[in-house]
Amino acid sequence: MKNAQCKKCLNKFNEKDIYTIQQFQYRKEPPYAWTVEFFKNLEVDEWDSFCEKCIMNYSKNSFEIWKNDSKK
Ligand SMILES: [Zn+2]
User: What's the pTM value of the predicted model, to 2 decimals?
Assistant: First the structure.
């Protein structure tokens, strides 16, 4: 049953395919504390559900912003 909803694109999908920003704990960069702060500004917390496509976009965008920030 597709009873989960992505907070970003609002598509419905299976609960077992839920992604949250908590999975970013496992990336080497940026640090997770930075990530949590970044998403707080987007009004996203660690319990919001996203589909795979949106979490991948978030992953890419946040990494690029962090990379640009750290150059300054
Ligand atoms: Zn989505």
Answer: 0.90
39 CA to middle of ligand 1, Å? 15
List the Cα angle 14/5/40 in 5-degree steps: 125
Handedness of CA 37, 38, 39, 40 (dihedral sign): positive
pLDDT value of residue 66: 96
How far, in Å, is the centroid of ligand 1 from the Cα of 54? 4
Closest CA to 49 of 59, 12, 1, 63: 12
Residue 72 has pLDDT above 90, yes or no: no
pLDDT at 70: 79
